Amino acid sequence: xxxxxxxxxxxxxxxxxxxxxxxxxxxxxxxxxxxxxxxxxxxxxxxxxxxxxxxxxxxxxxxxxxxxxxxxxxxxxxxxxxxxxxxxxxxxxxxxxxxxxxxxxxxxxxxxxxxxxxxxxxxxxxxxxxxxxxxxxxxxxxxxxxxxxxxxxxxxxxxxxxxxxxxxxxxxxxxxxxxxxxxxxxxxxxxxxxxxxxxxxxxxxxxxxxxxxxxxxxxxxxxxxxxxxxxxxxxxxxxxxxxxxxxxxxxxxxxxxxxxxxxxxxxxxxxxxxxxxxxxxxxxxxxxxxxxxxxxxxxxxxxxxxxxxxxxxxxxxxxxxxxxxxxxxxxxxxxxxxxxxxxxxxxxxxxxxxxxxxxxx
Length: 361
Ligand SMILES: [Zn+2]
What we know:
The protein is α/β, with parallel strands linked by helices. The protein contains 16 helices and 7 strands. The longest helix is centred in the last third of the chain and has 29 residues, at about 280-310. Bound molecules: zinc ion.
């Protein structure tokens, strides 16, 4: 069992699912709800792998496990493989609709056509591999009322061997009639130590030192998704490079290189993001980069605040509180201001003007 599985095993999710699977009384519809990046979708796919496996096993600790060797497991384990009995429904499926009007709509919700084509149709068709079928609906909070009411039919009269998982960070957006027909599993944020343990087990974090892992775990604030992003895009390097400049800016003199240094990192992030994601917009990637930058600057402020409060030094805490205010203002500007370089230059200037450190620091 990997660390990842052990970590999720500590949440209620896998306990509930594990006992349901082993007892053979697996409910047909589930809601996984909780904050983004805590492993809801990953867990749903892992459960799907077990449900679709032709020869499921039981681990020494009594947990169900897919065999990893059957035709179904092999299909799921292939990157980009399309398993005919595993249907993952996302709002982007609307882009592939036969109906031009559906294709042309903005992707603000999951339209009823997607539910008909990608949930009801496969649900009432027999399984391609003569076994179970699994349907996972990601971002289920985007199901509009019509889509939810259409889905309801499938929940009221579930076709045999069909399992449905609704993944959501906003469970209250789901109709009470939907919620009452599903077994609901809350997912919680992980502790820093749990994130760190998980990181130490990941191939992409192999070359990382303990300090880096510790920083990423703290920065991730309980979200594995955030930890992966920080590791992939080297946000700990942003922290190490920018921290001394930010401290210098607090000395009252403008630090000319601060604005460009921040802009370079946002630019590098946006470029890499667009390279890694087909159909990603450069503008959205730039804004996401700025938000990650604000996240890193916020972490600098929080670290300094903690240090000041440990020694009960209110004067030392003040500039960092001002920094937090400044970041909140800049975040608001991000929505109206499209010029990232200008926004960051302005932030650098404001940082010198508005976060004066006590004399001598
Ligand atoms: Zn298998």
